[in-house]
Structure formats: C-alpha cells, structure tokens
Design a protein that fits this description.
- This protein is an alpha+beta fold and 381 residues long.
- β3 and β4 form a beta hairpin.
- The longest helix is centred in the middle third of the chain and has 12 residues.
- The protein is built from eight helices and 21 strands.
- The relative contact order is 0.14.
- It folds into three domains: 113 residues; 80 residues; 110 residues, no CATH class.
- The strands form seven sheets. A four-stranded antiparallel sheet has the order 1-2-6-5, covered by helices on one side. It has a four-stranded antiparallel sheet with strand order 17-18-20-19, sandwiched between helices. It has a three-stranded antiparallel sheet with strand order 3-4-7, with helices on one face.
- InterPro entries: AtuA-like_ferredoxin_dom, AtuA_N.
Length: 381
C-alpha cells in the first residue's frame, strides 16, 4: 500500500493511471451522512481512511470499532460536495471523474474505479484574502399570519431591502453600522415587530473577502521538509495542459426520438423522498449534486433535473447567474454549479446559509411530480 507522498514513485504512477485525488478528498473530507443515514451509530467519532495500492486500486474505509458508515451512498454524497465539474484540477494531476464508480465490497469498505487522468495545468490556484470592509446586523422576528406583507412593510420602512431567503421568517438588516432608525422601528412597524436583544452583532466588525486567482507553477518554490532536516526541492510538472475556463456542461439530458420512457402515474411529493443530495461552497459559487439508488430512478432523474428545472426549483433563490450541469451516470448522479449563489463568498455573503450546505436540502424539500413506482416502500403522504 502506498502512502500519500508526492515523492513516492508508486503513488505518482497510480496518480497518472487512475487519479488518486478523489480518494484523498473522500478520506480527508470524509463520507458525510445523507439524510437517510441520520440514525447511523456514533457518527461523532468517525475516522476515514483511503487505502491506495501501488497500482492505483483504491478502497475507502474507516477504523474498526469507530462510529459512522462507509457506503456507496456516503461516498457519493461526499464526492458531490467536493467537485465543481467533471475535471478535478490540481497542480500535480487532473482527475477526470465523469465515469467514476463506487462498489460496496464489504462492511464499511467501498472501492473506487473509473477515474481517468490528464496532465495538470501550467498554473496553480492561489487564494488571496483582503480586507472587505465592515458589517453590522440586527435580527427582527416575524410571527403568525401575513408574513410576506409584514416583510414588505419592514423593507419599505428601511428604504433598503434586507436580504431575505425563502422559508425564513427572520429579517437581517446589514450595514456598515446599525443606525438608530432600525431600532426605532420596533415601535412603529408590523404587528408583533421585535428585534433580538443580543446587540453584539450591531457593533461594526471587520470582514475579509476571499479571492481566487492563478499563479504560474514555475513561480512557486515547492519544497518538502523531512523529519531528519533534509529539504527536497520538487520541480514543477514537465508536462502540462491548458484547460478551458468553462468546464463541460450539458443543460439537459437529450432523449432521442422514440426512446423516451413513459413514467406512468405520478404522486406529488418532496423530491427528497427518492433523491439524496449534498451541497456546499466553492468560493462565491455553490455546488449541489443529487443522486438516486437505482438505474431506473436515475433515468427519470437525469431527464427531470435540467438547468431550467433547477431554476424553477430555486424560485426566488435563483440569482439570474449561470448554472453548470453535468452527469455522473455510474453513480446515478446529476451535479450543478450555481455561479455566485453565495454573493461575495463565505466571509462576506449576506445569506444565513453562508456555506451553501442547505441548498441541497432546500431543493429536496420542494414538492414535484415523482413517478409512483419510484416511491415504492416510501411514505408519500
């Protein structure tokens, strides 16, 4: 078994042939539990392991006697959280993951295969953090009937509408400082208008904005410091490839004439009744992936979840920006990248869901027409 080291020749060979990066992200990020696994035992002491063989074979597992579950479902969920498209680009190798496969080979043991590789780009990603100004906020609560009307009244009184997210009944006026009129509105606004007594967030605090850019790999001095004091210089890759800025994207699944399947009777139910999902932040973007457990369900899912459908499901949450979509047919998944969904990124966004981790749960809660036969053994009322 090869240890993860850029200096290990067997690891380098495996990296070239099979693309080890997805194995590392699954082990380091860890297979997270989808909603169906909320009852998994002792998930708090879950430790993850990637076993990487000298020839590139990969098994995701965990320490024996520890809590949690390693399954095709948890590995699929974690992969969908980590990616932005079919190219997983790194400074040492590019993993091509649209044909990735997971196979359960034992209890808490999942093999990974189907990953191809390409040379890395001549550049490497660099994160820059800069002072982004100041923020302050207050929380007002809305209770009872006529929530939309109460919110509109408060917005009109503020003259500057606060950011409101669907499904929330809390207003969060944000500014460089909280002016007295926002506090004074408690006596003249909507019925029951109340702000939170914890005023600490009203004190202006500095925020730092995160920017991502690229740097030529030849400008980076890559060194490995060994335990015995030796320092080994790691040269930049000798073979590179320039990738398009836009990753491959297919707005919808094209059904050839005469090959479409009739899905029969449908039932109105939350999408999450039959579909799992995982989402998260990627700078100012949010990525979200959805997966099902069978090939038949996937045939429906890939036809149903188009970019236009995603815009409809997002409803008022859709910001009008570009949405990328690609399919992972061997793990029954469809993945989306929502550009600038998090405004200026985690540290500066005005949304409550600043990490984008609830995008998947929001979409899964939306009611859609699901084929009844896909709901077998599921509660639909």
């Amino acid at each position: 078994m090869a240890c993860y080291s850029p200096l290990n020749p067997s690891f380098q060979r495996a990296d070239t042939q099979y693309g080890i990066r997805p194995a590392l992200l699954l082990a380091l990020g860890g297979p997270r539990a989808p909603a169906s696994l909320l009852a998994a035992p002792r998930v708090s002491d879950f430790s993850k392991i990637s076993e990487i063989g000298a020839e590139g074979e990969v098994v995701i597992t965990k320490q024996k006697g520890r809590g949690g579950i390693v399954s095709v479902e948890t590995c699929t969920a974690q992969l969908l959280y980590e990616i932005q498209g079919p190219w997983y680009i790194n400074s040492d190798v590019t993993a091509i993951i649209d044909n990735i496969r997971f196979t359960q080979i034992g209890e808490n043991r999942v093999s990974m295969s189907g990953v191809e590789s390409a040379p890395p780009p001549p550049t490497t990603k660099v994160g820059i953090t800069a002072h982004g100004g100041f923020q302050a906020e207050m929380h007002y609560f809305l209770v009872g009937l006529d929530i939309p009307a109460k919110a509109r009244m408060f917005e009109q009184q503020l003259h500057a509408p606060p950011h409101r997210r669907a499904g929330q009944v809390r207003l969060r006026p944000r500014a460089a400082q909280i002016p007295p009129p926002i506090v004074d509105l408690v006596m003249s606004s909507y019925p029951g208008g109340t702000f939170h007594l914890d005023m600490r967030l009203g004190i202006p605090r500095p925020v730092y904005e995160y920017f991502v850019t690229k740097l030529d790999q030849t400008a980076v001095e890559h060194r490995v410091h060994m335990h015995d004091g030796r320092v080994i210089e790691v040269p930049p890759p000798s073979v590179t490839k320039i990738f398009a800025t836009q990753q491959p994207s297919a707005p919808s699944f094209k059904v050839e004439a005469g090959t479409g399947r009739e899905w029969g009777e449908t039932v109105r139910a939350p999408l999450g009744l039959v579909v799992g999902g995982r989402s998260g932040d990627k700078g100012s973007d949010a990525n979200v992936g959805f997966f099902v457990s069978s090939a038949e369900q996937y045939e429906w899912l890939r036809q149903f979840l188009s970019v236009d459908r995603m815009k409809t499901l997002l409803a008022k949450e859709y910001n009008g920006k570009e949405i990328d979509r690609f399919e992972l047919p061997h793990i029954n998944a469809v993945h989306f990248l929502l550009h600038d969904h998090l405004d200026r990124g985690v540290s500066c966004t005005t949304t409550v869901d600043f990490l984008g981790k609830n995008v998947a749960e929001f979409i899964r809660a939306r009611e859609v027409d699901v084929p009844r036969r896909s709901c077998r053994n599921q509660r639909t009322s």
